[in-house]
Amino acid sequence: MLFNDHCHSLCSPDGAFSMTDMALAALHQGVGEVCFTDHCDCVNEDGALCRTFSWEAELAQFSAAQNTLGGRMKLRLGVELGEPTQSPDYAREVLALPLDFVIGSVHNPLFGRDYYFQHYDSADACRRLILDYLAQLTAVAESDFYDVIGHITYPLRYMRVRDGVGVDFDFCKEQLDALLCAVVRRGKGIELNTSGYLNCGGEPMPPRWILERYRALGGELVTIGSDAHVPENMAQGLADGMALLRAVGFRSLAVFEQRKPEMISLFQP
Ligand SMILES: [Zn+2]
Ligand SMILES: [Zn+2]
After folding, report:
1. Which of 131, 214, 221, 258 has the lowest tally of Cβ within 10 angstroms?
2. What's the rounded Cα separation, in Å, for the pair 136 and 42?
3. Total-model pTM
């Protein structure tokens, strides 16, 4: 069975489809369990503090999906919390909601525009931004504002794949270890974001060598999600991602309910 613990509905600024449409597509694509994780960003795309998340809209979408899907698949409701350490009071408010799951993500340099909206042409500038990215992500990892760290290596999607700058995360292994160690020390996890198979040069976020490093440092908790914003991507890369986790040596996948991980064997038929 496939699990998708990262996807977006029309409640996200960059989403356009109802939870019902997303769940029905997932069901038809062989996904047995879905957790919706709409964006709840503490800063907007320009890096200014914001509060745009609506829990009422989430609940309305979620109950409509549950009513339509009935017992045919398991649905859960989480959130992708962006830049939580930049607005800790807001993050705490959001985390007081009865969420199943929280992905802690960084999409913006500190006080800067989303990596998506920037143009990259110099490897040195990219390396500085990657160090800034890892510092911010490590601050999230040291906080209580997450269950798993989202799409590690996100800026590469735009630096390397879209704009063609030859950078990777291998120049900053020490900083990467600091991030992964913080996650392990706090008993939290990371996600394997399979959207990268489609739009990050054919490799998931994080790629295999970072998954291996996480495991070598004692990491065990990994969730999986396709980060779908459209129905046709609900199962995208999930089977490949599960095979990759098995190849790296993980025995199980984590699925969160009421913020608690349940371990699902990766070796079930
Ligand atoms: Zn994200
Ligand atoms: Zn996302």
Report:
1. 258
2. 13
3. 0.97
